[in-house]
Amino acid sequence: DYLRDNLSRKKEQLVMRWPRPFHFSIVDEVDSVLIDEGRNPLLISGEDNREAARYPVAAKVADLLIEGAHYTVELKGNNIDLTEDGVTYAEMILGTNDLWDENDPWARFVTNALKAKEFYRRDVQYIVRNGKALIINELTGRVEPKRRWSDGIHQAVEAKEGLKIQQADSVIVAQITYQSLFKLYPKLSGMTGTAKTEEKEFLKMFKMPVIEVPTNLPNIRVDLPIQAFATLRGKWQYVREEVESMFQLGRPVLVGTTSVESSEYLSDLLKSRNIPHNVLNARPKYAAREAEIIAQAGRKHAITISTNMAGRGTDIILGGNPKMLAKEIVEDNVLPFLSHDTPDVETEGESTSHKGLSKIKLGPSSLALLAKAAIMAKYVHKSESNEWSFQKAKSAVMESIEMSNTIGLEKLQERVAEVTEMYPLCDAIALAYATVLKDCEIHCFDEGAEVKTLGGLHVIGTSLHESRRIDNQLRGRAGRQGDPGSTRFMVSLQDEMFRKFNLDTEWAVRLISRITDGEDIAIESNAVVKQLLGLQINAEKYYFGIRKNLVEFDEVLEVQRKHIYSLRQVILSGDSESCSEQIFQYMQAVVDEIILGNVDPQKPPKTWDLAKLLDELASLGGNLLTETFKETQEEDLQSSLEQILRYGSVEVDNFVLPNMPVPPNSFRGIRKRTSSAMRWFAMCVDDTSKKGRYTNIVNLLRKYFGDFLIATYLEVLQESRHHDAYIRGIEEGSTSEDT
Fold it and tell me: Rounded CA gap, 302 and 355, in Å?
């Protein structure tokens, strides 16, 4: 909204409450917003369609180039460098003599195609859905359909996948960092469970101290030592074995993975051992059922494999979430009778797996009310001429459940008992839900007590993240509200983070081989773990440096952005007089720039480049000023300035250079005369321009030509006989485009 408001051309398009749109901000998960997302500036882009056809060609070239021979890869900075052989080979394929030729530029497209090939992996950084490449937020694990990578990367990814280029090259028209945006709030605060490790950054960047609030109940979660493996194979094998052992005990397990690819790889391993489980990642068939999957995650024997979608802000209740379970039971019993449509997996998701979980025992009253609701649903379906869509049927059930939560059980029983002309379908569903909910609450309470006896939720992390905070978020899913729980992180030296930050894996493998005979054996050695955690801290420092540089760079832009944006708001929100005054100031500023660029107040006028000054000023107003000053020579202006030097004083109010063209008499009225006087005062107190013996002559020159340009503009407007509202619209449009 902030960026769009400052691209608006009409007052009616503004959506924020100007002139003071920012007041107080409370940011939920503040470390995620201000720190994790702080590396990514917020952009609004326009389109440039000229080079769209180059992306598919560059993608084919990238497929032919070989890493090591034709290009080198730097994982840490996501950089690609073409070797001499690579440049020659690419030029030969493309039939060009120079990849960097300005008239036929291929270098950028080939480099982006190689980056798409090496750094942007399907089911890790993005997924493909409905012919589109959709970004997966690596910090949250969620799809972000409205985001696109900038600098041609997204188009390169689309070309790599053989997709239609959805947008051509993007041109940034407005941008701001999260840090700069939230600093606009006079008062800024936030809440999170994992800010302590970034306390210094919050204080330095945002002047926000971190206050730690003690937990309501003591934390009895057990964080088991990190286990390190030499190979990925060994790590995944141990993850599978630990999940299987916990499943045999009956403890619920949450496995955190870093990508869609990893979550589905582990899912295949568990399927091979016939271990029932649910997967939660960015794929639509899973993401659409997120609430149902999380509702089951704390039940006995429940196994959940998740990306970071379940790593922040997720409350897993031991024994299950009774409200979500009751909702599932009602939907399973009613929806098949209301609609015969097959649910769309893309929007509704796959059904949640209940294998291995205990069946919820429903009382006779719940079963009877469910049967009654199903009969009513069947009657409604038959009595209505139009077939109900699955979405319409589901919405009707959801409305009934919301009504049940609002009005209570006794009121529902009264409504169902009343004789009405219409069949009370919603009331019947709501009453069935309320009764089933009571049974679910009893079941979940009993099962929750059993799970606590077994040790609570067990969380397994399959990789260290680039920040300790994200690891702590995953750990925090277990042991909530004083519940028991445990966590274990299993990492491999072949994990991407260790490769990206150049861990000496050979040293670690040699150390592991001295400790154990097999590379696939888990190691809990303090030396290895200390080395890995030290690397994680280095990663945090590296990304802190990126955020710091981004903020420092944006601070330079912020000065200009604030000035330009405030100027736009004055123009859009002000009256016609203030808008005209801005136009006059622009005109005077342009004149001042030309004059100050051709004169020196410390040297006499005879040394000034007056010929160039006249040429540049005459070109400002098109034919108007050209015609006026076509007879004026450098010598005329020189003579005029020498006359002024001999004057003891001059009258500034209606000042005209001697023997020079007289400006049109357009400064009639107190407002226009006041405007001219204010511009003169601004010149006299101007501390930014160079000072010298001839400063007064320079200022008179600035006033004369500034007044001349403005008076000519006003004369043209008066002769046009256009309505004031029409002129104001033109002025607003021209100034908003300039800003």
Answer: 9
Helices (H), 574-694: 576-596, 610-618, 623-629, 634-646, 670-684
Report the DSSP pairing between strands 485-492 and 278-280: unpaired
pLDDT at 583 over 90: no
Average pLDDT, the chain: 81
Task: Tell me, rounded to whole angstroms, the distance of Cα 24 from its chain centroid.
Answer: 21
Question: ∠ at Cα 279 (275, 280), nearest 5°?
Answer: 160
**What pLDDT does residue 576 have?**
61
Under DSSP, the state recorded for 370 is H
Q: Which CATH number fits domain 224-318+456-524: 3.40.190.10, 2.40.10.270, 3.40.50.300, 1.10.3720.10?
A: 3.40.50.300
Domain span(s) for CATH 3.40.50.300 in the chain:
224-318+456-524
Res 726 pLDDT > 70: no
The CATH code belonging to domain 45-174 is 3.90.1440.10
Average pLDDT of the segment spanning 414-432: 72
DSSP class of 523: B
Compute the distance between CA of residue 175 and CA of residue 185 in angstroms, rounded to an integer.
Answer: 17
The CA distance from 426 to 429, in Å, is: 5
Q: How far apart are CA 463 and CA 255, in angstroms?
A: 10
Give the H/E segment covering residue 485: strand 485-492
For residues 551-556, give the mean pLDDT. 80
| Residue 96 in this model has a pLDDT that exceeds 90 | no
Instruction: Please report which confidence band the pLDDT of residue 639 belongs to, taking 50, 70 and 90 as the band edges.
Output: confident
Both structure tokens of 302: 């429940």
* pLDDT at position 42: 78
Averaged over 581-601, what is the pLDDT? 86
DSSP, res 662: P
Q: Residues of CATH 3.90.1440.10 domain(s) within the chain?
A: 45-174
Report pLDDT for 509: 61
Write phi, then psi, for 635 (nearest 5 degrees).
-65, -35
More confident position, 595 or 419: 595
> Model-level pTM?
0.71
Q: Which residues have CB under 8 Å from 282's CB, separation 6+?
A: 127, 134, 136, 141, 142, 143, 260, 307, 309
Mean per-residue pLDDT, 281-285: 77
**637-646: Cβ within 8 A, 24+ apart:** 637/610, 637/613, 638/605, 638/606, 638/610, 641/605, 641/697, 641/701, 642/605, 644/697, 644/700, 645/605, 645/697
Give me the sign of the Cα torsion angle 434, 435, 438, 440.
negative
